[in-house]
Amino acid sequence: MTVIYAFLAIGIIIFLHELGHFMAAKFVGVPVERFALGFDPYKLRLFSFKPGEYIEFLGRFRISLGASNAAGSDSQDPGQSANGTTSSATSSPEENVQTEYLIGLVPFGGYVKMTGENPEEEEEGACPDGLQNKSAGARALVFVAGVVMNIISGFFFFILAFSSGVEFPAATVGGTIQGMPAWEAGLRTGDRIVEVDGKPVKEYTEVLLGIALGERGTKVDIKVERPASKPGGSPATLDFSVPRAWNPARGMSSIGLQQVSAEATLAGEPPNDSAAHKAGLKKGDRIVGATLGEVELPPLPSQQFMRVLLHHIRLFPDEAVDLTVARDGQPSPLKIRLEAPQDPKAPVVPRIGVAAGGGTFVKNIAGASDAESIFKPGDRLLSIDGETVHSMQWEQLSKHYAKDSISLKLLRAGKENESVLSGNKLLRLLLTDEVQWTGRDLEVGALPESNAAYKAGLRKNDQVLRIDDREVYSIDDLSAYLAENTQENHELVVSRKSEEKKLTLSADALGEDAGITWRTFPTISMVTPNGPAANAGITAGSKIHEINGKEIFSFAELSAGITAYAAENKDSEAAGKLKIGWIDAKGDKQEGSLAAASPAPANWGFVLKSATVVVRSGIGGSFKLGIERSIITVDQVFLTLRSLIRRDVEAKNLAGPVGIIHIFSRVAAGSLIQLLFWMGMVSMNLAVLNLLPIPILDGGHLFFLLIEKLKGSPVSTRIQFASMQIAMILFLSMALYVTWNDIARLFSGF
Known about the structure:
Blueprint: H1 2-28, E1 32-39, E2 45-50, E3 54-57, E4 61-64, H2 93-96, E5 100-104, E6 106-114, H3 136-164, E7 166-169, E8 173-176, H4 181-185, E9 192-196, E10 199-200, H5 204-212, E11 219-226, E12 236-243, E13 245-247, E14 252-254, E15 257-259, E16 262-266, H6 275-279, E17 286-292, E18 295-296, H7 302-315, E19 321-326, E20 334-338, E21 348-349, E22 354-356, E23 361-365, E24 380-384, E25 387-388, E26 406-412, E27 415-421, H8 423-431, E28 435-438, E29 443-444, H9 452-455, E30 463-467, E31 470-471, H10 475-484, E32 489-496, E33 499-506, H11 507-510, E34 518-519, E35 524-527, H12 532-536, E36 543-547, E37 550-551, H13 555-568, E38 578-583, E39 589-594, E40 598-599, E41 608-610, E42 612-615, H14 619-646, H15 657-670, H16 672-690, H17 698-711, H18 717-748
């Protein structure tokens, strides 16, 4: 049904555009031969109608309305009478031409066919009222009328939408990607963005566009309001200047912001069979605190709080959770115990219950973080209060958070250092992701003896430490360095049996085509209690390197191997005999058998409220909001065109017919109010794009008229026709390109 709504919405926008041309043509006295919605190649039509003459279905089934063959039929020149003689002065061509109304078989687009519209078809004097014989002012009015109608209708759609309430994604930082400019600059989860490059913003899309449509490689100025750190405090206003980073996958600039997706508030009643329902949670409940295991979470932004909570209950599905809930009508927060769902009939999935990440090396520290007083990039955390640490996942260190003071032993520049801080401070640093922790996971896997790297001294199982004094933690680090530095030779430092070795290798010996198979399996950071891996003896700090005697070189290979084995041995005894080989935290090789079967994710029942802002106003306020949104939309279109020309945004981001239908379908699934708003957006976009000086568009016709006024005579028919042919070829090529992109995005995700 939403697809039907999408087609109707687009059809209305096109209809209004063509209606503008139709009304203007009638106003200036130009005969209109055809008014069509959609296109009718080879006269393939769903419906056609000519008042007083006929109604026709599918181009074949005609119902006569009793009139004789009137002027303007396909076999007759609109400027002639029925007997072929020229119309008299008392019977104008406009009166003789009867407009045909039709719906084409191709349900996208539309057109108005006016007499004399095509310069090649119109001979001087053939039809005095033909478009080409009208004054320049009259022709300009006809061409611009469609654009004007789109602007008026777009503005009207905005007013209708805002009077009912338009829902926008909140302009709040839902998170920052570690290592990206926003994180390095010091932006934080929960910051509300109020300005981008000096322009006020009200919703998240404006933030993304403000960043993407700026000049590539420049800095973007962002103003935020940061919530008070203490109850009752005032929010702080902060300014940031953040460099734009090019994202080749998206074909545009970004700074590493993540959209806030949900609040810690239940949007609906939890399902009857869910843990939330059994615990007594209700619609509108706001989760304000939680105790996970023995750890009480400190105050966190809503998005960050829910991310931590949901991650924890997925890793520990058998563990009860204590929640603090604010409920309307209750004077004080409620304490609710959320018991883990127990379903003996729950299906199993091919998983062994391990998670990777959270190493012990400090790769980077977020901007303006007080972690800088404790850690430095390159540090390796060795122990906490004398206990060896293998992972910086916060759950692994839970027993330390209640301590007023804990001692950290660090390895820095080859020397051991000691630092002291409170357990609560360490917990906050881990939960807020202000320190980028990583493992040293890059090792040499398969390496043929004929390989240039082997001949230079590189060996299987060598662990890469540095390249040209740049620390290397992963394959991404190595690849990025090689891409940035194009010298012929590099010094590679590796660890072999706990000894460092320096090797000189050519850039080609380390390149993607060098034939080296890299082992990039990160250290196991978490093991689900009572899961298959835990029961087999795998612990945090281990590295899995083998499945059923076959070497694996990445976490992706582990997941794929487990899935493939489970599928191949479904409902057989072999399903419980998956052999896993791993290296434990002490460096010893281990081996065991397990069943690659874990319970499917439990139904906890959290249906969270979307993090949105609703803009609603009365008629007067909606009028003002409609003007503001119209100006914003037009400005964004021009900025997009400029960015495409300057290559600040790649053309693959453009949406064609398929993409527009897809977007409209998704919007319509939300609400008709949101659909009205997007109709206003598309209508404004269509208005601006139609003003471009491209011959087949309204702007192209206006451009020819401008030349005519400047030179004092019309542009020759030959030049106009050739320009239109070239423009049509380019237009069709672009249409095919964007349609291909749309189809690709349907499978990869918009």
